[in-house]
Write a structure and sequence with these properties.
2 domains, 65% helix, 9 helices, mainly alpha, Tetracycline Repressor, domain 2, elongated
Length: 203
C-alpha cells in the first residue's frame, strides 16, 4: 500500500489511539506507523517519545468523558437498577482508556499525570461525586434503601476498576458478553443491599 505524500498530526493521533486501545501499553510506535501508513521516523518528527504520543492520542477521550453526565436529571425517573448497569458499562469503557494512561505515566519516574487528570477536580472525582449525588437523591425518594451514597458509588466504581485492572495485568481484553455479565452481576450484588423496602416495612 502506497504511503500518502502528506499526513496530518491528527491522522497519526487517530492511528495511535486505535493502536493503543487495541494493544494497550504493549503497542509500539512501529505498529502505530504501520496503521497510519507512514515511516516510524515521521512519528518521532512530531512526538519526542512514545509517552508523549500516548498522552496526545488519548487525551481527547479522557478530558471530559460523556459518562460524567449520564445521570443528569434521572432522579425519580426510569429504573434505578438499569441506570446503574448503564453507568457501570460506560465507566468500564472509560477506565479501559484511563487506566493505561495513568499506569504509563507512573511507569516514568519523571512523567506527571496529564493536566486533565492532575487537577484538583479530575473526571474520576467528578464522576464519583455525581454518582453519590444521584444515589442520595434516589434514597430520599425511597427508590433506594438508605445507606452512605458515597460508599455505594465507591463500591460500584471499585468493582468495575478491579475488572479492568485484571484485564491489564492478564493482557487480555474480555468480550462484550463478559463485560455485560460482569456489570449486571455486580449491580445485582449491590442491589441486594440497596433495594427499596417493600410496602409496610420501614424505609
Amino acid at each position: 500500500m502506497a504511503r500518502p505524500s502528506t499526513i496530518t498530526t491528527e491522522q497519526i493521533l487517530e492511528a495511535a489511539r486505535a493502536t493503543f486501545l487495541e494493544h494497550g501499553l504493549r503497542a509500539t510506535t512501529a505498529q502505530v506507523a504501520r496503521r497510519a501508513g507512514v515511516a516510524e521516523g515521521s512519528i518521532f518528527n512530531r512526538f519526542a517519545t512514545k509517552h508523549d504520543l500516548f498522552f496526545a492520542a488519548m487525551q481527547p477521550s479522557l478530558r471530559d468523558p460523556e459518562f460524567l453526565h449520564l445521570l443528569d436529571g434521572r432522579e425519580g425517573t426510569g429504573d434505578v437498577r438499569a441506570h446503574m448497569v448503564e453507568l457501570g458499562t460506560e465507566l468500564l469503557e472509560f477506565l479501559r482508556r484511563m487506566l493505561p494512561l495513568i499506569m504509563m505515566s507512573w511507569s516514568h519516574s519523571r512523567g506527571p499525570l496529564p493536566p486533565h487528570l492532575a487537577t484538583k477536580d479530575p473526571p474520576p472525582a467528578r464522576a464519583l461525586r455525581q454518582a453519590a449525588r444521584y444515589f442520595a437523591a434516589e434514597m430520599r425518594l425511597g427508590r433506594l434503601r438508605r445507606c452512605d451514597p458515597e460508599v455505594l458509588a465507591r463500591a460500584l466504581f471499585g468493582g468495575v476498576q478491579n475488572y479492568v485492572f485484571h484485564e491489564l495485568i492478564r493482557k487480555r481484553r474480555s468480550t462484550a458478553k463478559a463485560d455485560r455479565a460482569f456489570v449486571r452481576g455486580l449491580v445485582d450484588l449491590l442491589w441486594s443491599g440497596i433495594a427499596p423496602h417493600t410496602k409496610g416495612k420501614r424505609r
